[in-house]
Amino acid sequence: MSSKTELPPPSADPSVLLSYPAPHVLLVTINRVRQMNSIPMPVHWHLHRVFEWFDREPTLRVAVITGAGPKSFCAGQDLIEMGKRDPKEMEEKPYLAMHPPTGFAGVSRRLGKKPVIAAVNGFALGGGFEIVLNCDMVVASPTATFGLPEALRGIYAGAGGLPRLVRNVGLPLASEISMAARTLSAKEALQFQLINHISSSQDTCVPEAVKLAAKVADISPDSIVITRAALRETWETSSIERAYQNIDDRMKRGLMEGENSREGLTAFREKRKPVWKASKL
User: Fold this and answer.
1) For residues 201, 146, 103 and 107, what is the CA-based torsion angle, rounded to 10 degrees?
2) What is the DSSP code (8-state) at residue 257?
3) Helices 259-270 & 240-256, crossing angle to 10 degrees?
4) Active-site positions?
5) Which end of the chain is flanked by fewer CB atoms within 10 Å, N or C?
6) Which GO terms describe its molecular function (predicted)?
């Protein structure tokens, strides 16, 4: 796909690579191989800007996030960088000592409008696992490993992952992962419904995630936005009927009066492939 977008992406950062592997799909690659794709504070803020731009960019519908290299998706916070911080600089730039409001890598607490798929090509530890826990779908390499080792370092998983882990797998397993440093293999993560698929090989992890993203990107962008919102609302509120009412009241009219719903129904009647327009929801 052409990299031409209607809105310019954030200024380039060598720690984050952006590419466009399929129509309407953004691939975000954490590019710090020597550091096991651990992330320093300034890069969290850069990724926050990337995903804010992604939500605004009309030509993009789905994002995939992965890590560069064969070993690590993301090994969490760059603790070496953290230990080298200049206290005076931290006083002058306090934001460098905290994650953005969207959390670790701009993803772990992100609400957003459009879905993000994780392509977990290796270790997903600490904040790397917290990224995964808030993604909409996950494709993992057979070599992937998931864990929250923060307690071993005298800290804790403070980027939003703990409540999401409890919500997804229940308190007993979440407690063992976060307090006894249990790690999960890709097979275990699939068993506990933390991921969608295990790729056929490590090399095919990203292509398979892109293929999944392309399936999502092929449907109406309005349908993507409202369906994701309904799923997230239910996950957040734990009330099935309240979640339905909230989304129905807030978004249904815009969907049904929009040009994509008309196009979808017309294309079905005319037995042709619909031509979607950028979402205005």
Assistant:
1) 20
2) T
3) 80
4) 130, 150
5) N
6) lyase activity
